[in-house]
Amino acid sequence: MGLLLAAGPPSSLVRAADPNEYRIVAAQARARLVGPDRPETGVWAYDGTIPGPLVRLRQGEPARLVVENRLDQDTTVHWHGVRLPNAMDGVPGLTQPAIKPGESFVYAFTPPDAGTFWYHPHANSLEQLGRGLAGAVIVEGRDPVAVDRDLTWFLADWRLKDTGEIASGFGNRMEAAMSGRVGSTVTLNGQASEGEPVRAGERVRLRLINGSLARIMALRFEGHRPMIVAIDGQPCDPHEAGRILLGPAMRVDVVLDMQGEPGRRYEVVDDFYDGLSYRLTQLAYDQQAPLLGRPLDTSLDLPRNPLPEPDLGTAERHDLTLQGGMMGGGMMAGMGGMMGGGMMQGMMGMGGGPAWAINGMSMTGDGHAGMEPALTFQRGRSVVLILRNQTAWWHPMHLHGHSMRVLSRNGAPVPHRQWQDTVLMAPKDVVEVALVADNPGDWMLHCHVMDHQMTGMMTVLRVA
User: Fold this and answer.
1) pLDDT tens per residue across span 46-67
2) Which CA distances in Å does 46 have to 6, 11, 22, 135, 368?
3) Distance from C-alpha of 368 to C-alpha of 366, rounded to nearest angstrom
């Protein structure tokens, strides 16, 4: 069980003697997000850095993470994608009391899975994440894949004013009913990136994390052939991807063989939004001769994590239908069809009701005590969830505490044995996922476009 503590030692004591122990402080800070000649930005940060400190844990070994709150509002930390005990999940009211200003909370768990995860608040999450509170978690496995370098790109976007400060207007109701708060500036590991240094002939494991509030990314690596080896921390069958789709909160691990020419630069472009393509960064080759003349032919298969395989023959089947949001022509998709004019304004107005629902029910905010589950599963049962997106918008649907085997999308089988905790759904998509409900507790299922979560696209699944 986590413990609430009085404020502890200063943040200079970030690491304790134990390599699996961290002390992390959430507080206001300043960061230079967009280059040396541009003004600094006031941010909220873990240990004063954007992103927060990289948390490195070891698979199967107990970890202890003390989070101290020096903000002037409540916070929590959700360890996104880690299959941990419910009391460590970081949802205020539902799984733990919020961490009050000046207090600390001890998160203690043993990560069962190796892979790429991340951490962020689950209290006032739209603003706290949007002002910078986020960091990467790498759980190191016993048998890592053979590469020359292991890199993490933590991607985030920001809505900045000309002064460099973060624009206000979190929780804009009209935005919330559409694509959410998409920012104007994208950073890679906390800075707008002109180039990332690489060497010809090296093999790199690149861990991509989308820490944005709402921005979906589709990354293309000019002149390179990225091989996807894991999605949301879970190994998959290695496969080449010309375009890497990365919804908010998703992680994709790729292996890149650097086969470019020494001294050249190759663009990494995000072209998800029509007409709004931009250069994320460049792979900047140094002048050195290649390490190797041709790519290694060693296996890219990562060791599988100990995920229970669902029994599709005996699985319960449940439909979860995503509803609401703005349609074309200024209409709101109602829970049973369309609604226009006055009702839409009522929903969208100041202090208006929810903009989204799952199976006709809306849960708003970040989580609170007494949230009634939409579905209850007996522990150990295999479950198939049919997720139906009846809206005109994209939704990265995140389930806490579990990974889901993605079976099919719009009737077509999904290849490569993909497990995900955050499933990106296009408008009108129908996606079938399967899991074993083996982690007891009340678990959030919500859209990770934070505006959508805050305005109703959230529910609770109970494992009894």
Assistant:
1) 999 999 999 999 999 999 999 9
2) 18, 9, 12, 8, 24
3) 7
